[in-house]
Amino acid sequence: MTRIQDIRREYRQGELRREDLHPDPFIQFDQWLKTVIDTGIPDPTAMTIATVDTTGQPSQRIVLLKDVSKGGFVFYTNLESRKAQELVANPKISLHFPWHFMERQVKVCGTAHALSLAEVTSYFLSRPRESQLAAWASQQSRPISTRQLLLSKFQEVKQRFADGDVPLPKFWGGFRVIPHEIEFWQGGEHRLHNRFVYSRTASDWQIERLMP
């Protein structure tokens, strides 16, 4: 049986140099994301988000990135969920894109800001009907005794809105993460990985290479 401590590999897919980086981290991110999407892997926009509760306990979960621009990174969620409630109390957040198969990672540190009703409504109405219904059926992060009970709730909601459009729930919304720091990581041989961090300044972004 292979011991966990013996599982390792070398990272040889590429190198990341300062001259390879775009001065704008959002453009750099977009370039990497497009490369990932073009590979055809499942869930290329999956990201881990980390929040902290009032006791200082961090919590992580995976969600899907739904938009990115110079305004920030956008995701949607039930506003009564654990992550949303933690962000209301403490808007500091970290995002992580684990593109291990390309030996790349991106880490984002910033603050989460609630999206406008217009933005949330526009996205909600673009979702598949089943996803809209699921938003109504699930009290996200709440305990439930069986999966069958959840499926029953879904059927109840399906019947409730059978004759028309599914409206936006008042408890459903989203956040835009405005970063102050974005780090790009490219694996390197002998664990001499390449790390560059963009830090927001008053007028622009500063780029520094970090030790691996």
UniProtKB/TrEMBL annotation:
Domain Pyridoxamine 5'-phosphate oxidase N-terminal: start-end pairs: 37-159
Catalysed reactions listed for this entry: pyridoxine 5'-phosphate + O2 = pyridoxal 5'-phosphate + H2O2; pyridoxamine 5'-phosphate + O2 + H2O = pyridoxal 5'-phosphate + H2O2 + NH4(+)
Pathway(s) served: Cofactor metabolism; pyridoxal 5'-phosphate salvage; pyridoxal 5'-phosphate from pyridoxine 5'-phosphate: step 1/1; Cofactor metabolism; pyridoxal 5'-phosphate salvage; pyridoxal 5'-phosphate from pyridoxamine 5'-phosphate: step 1/1
Taxonomic superkingdom: Bacteria
Cofactor dependency: FMN
Cited function: Catalyzes the oxidation of either pyridoxine 5'-phosphate (PNP) or pyridoxamine 5'-phosphate (PMP) into pyridoxal 5'-phosphate (PLP).
The name this protein goes by in its record: Pyridoxine/pyridoxamine 5'-phosphate oxidase
Species per Swiss-Prot/TrEMBL record: Fluctibacter halophilus
The organism's taxonomic lineage, starting at the top: Bacteria, Pseudomonadati, Pseudomonadota, Gammaproteobacteria, Alteromonadales
Gene: pdxH
